[in-house]
Amino acid sequence: MDKKDFINAVNGLGALTVAEERITQYFMKHYTMLPFAKIDELCKQIGVGKATLGRFLQHLGFSGFLEFKKHVADELAQTLTTPVERYEVTQHTDNESILTKHYDEVMFNMTKTFASISDDDFERAIRYMQNPKGKLYVMGSASSEALANYFFLLARYLRKDVVWLKADISTLPHQLADVTEDDTLFAISYHRFSTITIRLVKWFHQFGGRIIFVTDQPVNPFVAYCDIQFAVESGSEGFFNNRSSGFALIEAFIKGLSRQKEKNNRFNRIESVFDEFSVF
């Protein structure tokens, strides 16, 4: 079932209840991510009960959410586009400059992202990152690796025991051997998702560590395991999705971490090491 088929099926139901309208709007907005969703977390994000969602899908002709997911996944497997295909589809013939378009795109993504972030979630994430009893593990795969590495390098100025996790399955077990419930994992993953990152998040969750996750897809394979999830906008008419709002959020985390009391001593020590190695 593709998105058009879904819309047609919903239209065939006639008048919708408030809950059904909410489900429909959410599904339409996040259709490509539904195959990754777990029903408990999905219902929480939509704000409806599992029974309500089940009845709605039965009205559409499915036995339940699992059957619906399978139909969506089968269709998406045939229709997912590459960055080149997406770029060709979204080209326009107007005379607006690339620079102006990009500026508008960045500002739209930034505004929408920061409007959706809860101050309470942000402050809680900072507290987890600052926890002096545990380590702060950092990981990002593919294009997310650059964002994660930027955060890692600056976080090292602000607290001790910041651990960089390389997305290499042969070395991860050695790096994770000492994880405790006092530790925090900060993971970044944009669509498409890395199976290594998924396995890492699940493992960290099993051992009781805190998990802070940044992604551009609110419905994803990680959502059931995260303590806090930040969904950032990444819309773009170019070859690749836009990472600007994710980068801005990372810089906000660094600002929050800079309230760490020990930062001055660490700054001075790192600066002295730079001087020692003639790095300037």
Automatic annotation (TrEMBL):
Sample GO molecular function, one term: DNA binding
Gene3D superfamilies according to UniProt: Glucose-6-phosphate isomerase like protein, domain 1, Winged helix-like DNA-binding domain superfamily/Winged helix DNA-binding domain
Coiled coil feature spans: none
Residues annotated as domain HTH rpiR-type: 3-79
UniProt KW Membrane keyword: no
GO process annotations (BP): carbohydrate derivative metabolic process
Keywords: DNA-binding, Transcription, Transcription regulation
Domain SIS stretches: 125-263
A Pfam family that the UniProt record links to this protein: HTH_6
Classification via InterPro entries: Homeodomain-like_sf, HTH_RpiR, RpiR-like, RpiR-like_SIS, SIS_dom, SIS_dom_sf, WH-like_DNA-bd_sf
Superkingdom: Bacteria
Protein name: Transcriptional regulator
Species the sequence originates in: Photobacterium profundum 3TCK
